[in-house]
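Figure 3 (text version): structure tokens given as input.
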């Protein structure tokens, strides 16, 4: 199973990077580009249990105030939600921003809003800067009816 994860992560990361690279708006101001990614598994879900059969991958490219991503969730019942959360790998944490629900693939771009306009489901400029500064403090997870707290999860890197 570990080999499957390694091959899948490499393939999805490469494919996702190619997909979102074209979607990220060109930055005329020379903005830096940051890439974050993760492999999602049921074993990583906290407090658990997650779906033991579930697998997935997430890759995002951040340029300026925009985060563009691709998310895939495989071998789980139909997904009902997906999010980026803040917490260490050993704990659940609050939602930072909602993602398009994968079926089994989703992708999109999120533009950060000024901090004073932030709501639960939007991404603030300071939250985006914090993800760039320390992606390992954040994780992505996918929920479904059987695993409402989370079917699969992966810590960003």
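Below: residues designed for each position.
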């Amino acid at each position: 199973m570990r080999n499957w994860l390694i091959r899948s992560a490499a393939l999805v990361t490469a494919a996702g990077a190619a997909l979102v690279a074209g979607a990220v708006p060109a930055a005329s101001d020379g903005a830096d580009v940051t890439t974050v990614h993760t492999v999602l598994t049921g074993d990583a879900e906290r407090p658990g249990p997650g779906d033991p059969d579930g697998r997935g991958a997430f890759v995002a490219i951040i340029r300026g105030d925009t985060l563009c991503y691709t998310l895939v969730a495989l071998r789980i019942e139909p997904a009902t939600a997906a999010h980026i959360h803040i917490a260490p790998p050993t704990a659940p944490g609050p939602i930072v921003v909602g993602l398009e629900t994968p079926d089994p693939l989703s992708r999109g771009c999120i533009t950060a809003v000024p901090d004073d306009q932030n709501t639960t489901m939007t991404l603030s400029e300071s939250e985006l800067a914090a993800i760039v500064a320390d992606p390992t403090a954040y994780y992505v997870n996918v929920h479904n009816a059987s695993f409402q707290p989370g079917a699969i999860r992966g810590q960003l890197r």
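Residues 17-22 have pLDDT under 50 and may be disordered.
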